[in-house]
């Protein structure tokens, strides 16, 4: 009964023998990590991971973060084979956390996928799954204005850029000069919520009733405030209300409070979304998803853990019937890491943000990708170039550095800084035979 099975196995083995393995990268090693920081609407810290064979990878540390959160990981990675992506990431997972603290791990993940894609000659998306879409829909972040007419005009400009999915900031603080609009906590009264809805109505008039529109940045809302806001927005059929909950228990990030989010979601028809500052599936998104506490999640690939972890998060969301959008306010490197990743998501994917639509040189920071990067509100997923598929445009990046230095040597990060268990030595101790030794390893 095992005959056919063995035949199939033999066939597979002989098939592999025909593959050209002249470039099999068995001796590839990480040799260095360096960085620079682009001064932008939010700073873009960018890293390069170098190898002993000339190939290197690019990674984007979370926007408004600092490169040190990645560089402290350098001694944990130097000497390792960059192609062992999961093993390398496991080594540094303990140094990752929510918000900007996820930026180092995430940048390393991006750089390792860039290297692996270049070495194997495949686009990064192929390393984590299959391409489920050729274009990524981009949603437009739009800065608010207290005058609904001016705000609507800004949104009209977004529409003229070809965007098909919109988001508005809807700060309660826009109403601070309107009598009776805010309570003593700065949260909208019923009257204030009426004013907020006027902004939504003005923008709906511009973009049309069926066009996706989300809203964000409401202020310091608690659970009951969140419910009242979300219910007031129901007639306008928002795609989502983002990060409603901003206050809660001591020592708990509001976005991890799945019980509070479940209470909010169950009280309103407005879809509820959170997650731009959450790292990881376990200890991060999992409770929100398993408990169906939100309608959609919103990872930022430069905090959530890079391509591999964000793919895990997206797949788990699909399993739980929760939609996924992507936050993004960083450089095109993190942008393309997100586009590659989102290309593999299921049909629960909504859209990915771009926060640099008004920054003329954003797309000039890189070469190798199709321009304009955002074309009619979408980005083409690269499938003809390996890795992330882009290179830095050195001249443009150097024009916009936050501080002097462009991928300068980083000897100050050669030593273990934040944790160095069983590194260095020697350690005087009795070995397993009872003999005193002053040796480097415990083996
Ligand atoms: Mg947001």
What does this structure look like?
Helix content is 34%, strand content 16%. The chain has 443 residues and is of the alpha/beta class. An eight-stranded parallel barrel has the order 4-5-6-7-8-9-10-11, surrounded by five helices. Strand 1 and strand 2 form a beta hairpin. Helix 11 runs parallel beside helix 13 and helix 13 packs across helix 14. The radius of gyration is 24 Å and the shape is globular. The N terminus is likely disordered. The structure holds magnesium ion (MG). Magnesium ion binds next to loops.
Mean residue pLDDT: 93
Total number of domains:
2
Pairing-aware structural class of the strands and helices?
alpha/beta
Report the β-strand fraction as a percent range.
Answer: 15-25%
What topology, given as strand order, has the largest sheet? Answer: 4-5-6-7-8-9-10-11
CATH 4th-level superfamily of the largest domain: Enolase-like C-terminal domain
Name the overall outline. globular
State the share of residues found in helices, binned by percent.
25-40%
Q: What CATH architecture of the largest domain do you see?
A: Alpha-Beta Barrel
Rg estimate, integer Å: 24 Å
Which properties best describe this structure?
TIM Barrel, alpha/beta, 443 residues, eight-stranded parallel β-barrel, Enolase-like, domain 1, disordered N terminus, 2 domains
């Amino acid at each position: 009964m095992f005959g056919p099975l063995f035949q199939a196995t033999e066939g597979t083995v002989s098939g592999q023998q025909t593959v050209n393995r002249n470039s099999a990268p068995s001796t590839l090693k990480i040799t260095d990590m360096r960085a620079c920081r682009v001064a932008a609407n939010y700073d873009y810290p960018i890293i390069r991971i170098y190898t002993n064979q000339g190939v290197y990878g690019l990674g984007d540390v979370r926007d408004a973060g600092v490169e040190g959160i990645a560089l402290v990981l350098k001694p944990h990675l130097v000497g390792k084979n960059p192609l062992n992506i999961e093993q390398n990431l496991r080594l540094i997972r303990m140094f990752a956390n929510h918000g900007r603290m996820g930026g180092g791990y995430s940048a390393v993940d991006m750089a390792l996928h860039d290297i692996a894609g270049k070495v194997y000659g495949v686009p990064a998306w192929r390393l984590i799954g299959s391409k489920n879409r050729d274009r990524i829909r981009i949603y437009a972040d739009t800065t608010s204005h207290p005058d609904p007419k001016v705000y609507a005009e800004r949104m009209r400009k977004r529409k003229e850029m070809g965007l098909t999915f919109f988001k508005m900031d809807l700060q309660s603080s826009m109403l601070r000069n309107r009598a009776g609009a805010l309570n003593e906590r700065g949260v909208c009264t019923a009257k204030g919520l009426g004013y907020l809805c006027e902004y939504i109505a003005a923008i709906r008039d511009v973009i049309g009733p069926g066009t996706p529109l989300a809203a964000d940045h409401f202020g310091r809302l608690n659970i009951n405030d969140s419910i009242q806001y979300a219910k007031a927005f129901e007639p306008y059929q928002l795609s989502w209300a983002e990060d409603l909950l901003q206050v809660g228990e001591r020592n708990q990030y509001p976005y991890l409070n799945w019980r509070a989010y479940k209470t909010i979601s169950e009280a309103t028809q407005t879809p509820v979304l959170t997650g731009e500052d959450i790292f990881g599936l376990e200890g991060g998104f999992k409770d929100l998803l398993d408990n169906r506490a939100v309608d959609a999640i919103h990872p930022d690939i430069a905090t959530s853990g890079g391509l591999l972890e964000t793919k895990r998060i997206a797949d788990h969301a699909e399993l739980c019937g929760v939609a996924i959008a992507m936050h993004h306010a960083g450089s095109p490197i993190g942008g393309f890491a997100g586009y590659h990743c989102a290309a593999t998501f299921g049909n629960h994917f909504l859209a990915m943000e771009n926060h640099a639509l008004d920054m003329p040189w954003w797309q000039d920071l890189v070469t190798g990708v199709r321009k304009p990067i955002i074309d009619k509100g979408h980005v083409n997923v690269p499938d003809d170039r390996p890795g992330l598929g882009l290179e830095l445009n050195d001249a443009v990046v150097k024009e916009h550095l936050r501080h002097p230095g462009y991928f300068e040597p980083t000897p100050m990060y050669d030593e273990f800084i934040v944790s160095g268990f069983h590194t260095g030595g020697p350690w005087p101790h009795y070995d397993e035979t009872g003999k005193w030794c002053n040796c480097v390893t415990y083996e």
